[in-house]
Design brief:
24% of the residues lie in helices and 26% in strands. It is globular and about 50 Å long. The protein starts with 8 loop residues before the first helix and ends in a 10-residue tail after the last helix. The chain is built from seven helices and eleven strands.
Length: 286
């Protein structure tokens, strides 16, 4: 049996049927990149799919905590690179690793302003699950379905994580293949709430660690749901949800796996198109 037969609605919910929607004609006319919405979805690896199956949670002892992100800055791998669990502290953890054999470091300079500049671009990144993009005075609000219904993470409106917070001042001295590290604690609100005046209903913490692998890149994601981490202290989120925490953190890991695998095939294609047509990276603040 192929591992793709595991990707059913029973196991992976809405991720099993992406895409189920399409762009309107107005959306297609709004950007020269709308054709890329129709690119086939690149599925996560067999290792990732099997690790994120229901009931397959890892032992919490092999997870890492937010203050342990410095462990990513070393050659090789940690004991858990794909998996999920609920930690004894009361918040969820997940890890996902994605190979990006065709993505080059210079493409990342194009990617971030590109997807931030248009809701159509944001939808193209992960059809169905990415719904709307709005720029804020600080950061951006991205309405998305994390697997249990639409949420509004306010990326950049929370607490940013810096390498220095984990004792890293020379990342390439630790890992010569290091390219990029970014992340932080993000407030989540309801999509109908005002993203400029809000009380968070939940916190999501995430870090992304990018390094060279072969002729491309490797993307490693760590997320913690139900917690923020600032100045060496935890801010636990007591929010109740009809979706159990273990299932939410599993579906969040699925979101990371699907969206970054999608980026691995989407970015080289749009970058090539932009270069061939003399298009600069869009300005999301324009």
């Amino acid at each position: 049996m192929s591992y793709t037969e595991l990707i059913t609605v029973e196991n992976f919910g809405p991720y099993a049927n992406i895409p189920s929607t399409t762009l309107t004609e107005e959306e297609r006319q709004s950007t020269p990149y709308s054709q890329f919405f129709d690119l086939p979805i690149n599925l996560p690896s067999e290792e990732t799919i099997k690790a994120l199956m229901p009931g397959n949670e890892i032992d919490p002892s092999i997870a890492i905590l937010p203050e342990e992100c410095g462990k990513l800055f070393a050659p090789g791998y940690l004991e858990c690179e794909n998996g999920y669990c609920v930690l004894p502290q009361g918040f969820g953890f997940s890890a996902v690793k994605i190979d990006m054999p065709e993505v080059q470091p210079e493409m990342l300079q194009f990617w971030f302003p590109w997807y931030l500049s248009s809701t159509v671009h944001y939808k193209t990144w992960l059809p169905d699950m990415h719904i709307e993009m709005r720029m804020l005075e600080r950061g951006h609000a991205s309405t998305e379905d994390l697997g249990w219904g639409p949420e509004l993470p306010l990326l950049g409106a929370g607490f940013m994580y810096r390498m220095e917070d984990f004792g890293i001042t020379d990342p390439t001295g630790n890992d010569p293949d290091f390219i990029r590290f970014f992340g932080g604690a993000t407030p989540i609100i309801s999509p109908e709430d005002d993203p400029t005046n809000f009380e968070p209903k939940a916190y999501l913490s995430m870090v992304n660690y990018v390094r060279r692998k072969g002729t491309g890149l490797e993307w490693r994601v760590r997320t913690w749901i139900g917690v923020a981490y600032q100045n060496g202290e935890y801010i636990l989120d007591p929010t109740e949800s009809p979706v159990p925490l273990l299932e939410r953190v599993r579906l969040l890991a699925c979101h990371n796996a699907w969206e970054w695998n999608r980026m691995a095939t989407l970015l080289p294609a749009i970058y090539k198109f932009a270069k061939e047509n003399g298009l600069e990276a869009p300005d999301p603040r324009a």
